[in-house]
């Protein structure tokens, strides 16, 4: 059962990393669109979208770090 739990934690970590990269890409895309509107009247809704994707990126990165700590200190502690 511990093996299954460890694989589940690793799958969750991989998923968090994948979603963090998608969030970073979306954040950069919306930031590019916002910068493109600076010559005319800036669209602040685009900046709101940038901040939402940035928050998602930070959240999934923190989740990835927490899952890595769980994997390291719970499952790999006895390998030293």
General description of the model:
The protein has helices at 2-36, 44-75. It is mainly α and 80 residues long. The protein has one domain. The radius of gyration is 18 Å and the shape is rod-shaped. The mean pLDDT is 92. The chain crosses the membrane at residues 12-33, 53-75. Keywords: Membrane, Transmembrane, Transmembrane helix.
Q: Which descriptors apply to this entry?
A:
80 residues, mainly alpha, 2 helices, 84% helix, rod-shaped
List the helices and strands and how they pair.
Elements: H1 2-36, H2 44-75
In short:
With 80 residues, the protein is an all-alpha fold. It contains two helices and no strands. Helix 1 (2-36) packs antiparallel against helix 2.
Radius of gyration: 18 Å
What structural class do you assign from the helix and strand content?
Answer: mainly alpha
Number of domains: 1
Name the helicity range. over 70%
What is the molecular shape? rod-shaped
SSE arrangement, N to C: HH
Mean pLDDT: 92
Give the biggest beta sheet: none
**Number of separate strands:** 0
**Count of DSSP helices?**
2
Q: Strand share of the residues?
A: under 5%
Distance between the termini: 22 Å
Low-confidence segments, given as residue ranges, are none
């Amino acid at each position: 059962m511990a093996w299954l739990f460890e694989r589940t934690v690793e799958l969750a970590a991989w998923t968090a990393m994948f979603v963090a990269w998608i969030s970073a890409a979306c954040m950069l895309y919306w930031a590019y669109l916002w910068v493109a509107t600076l010559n005319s009247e800036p669209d602040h809704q685009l900046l709101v979208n940038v901040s939402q994707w940035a928050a998602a990126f930070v959240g999934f990165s923190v989740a990835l770090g927490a899952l890595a700590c769980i994997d390291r200190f719970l499952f790999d502690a006895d390998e030293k």
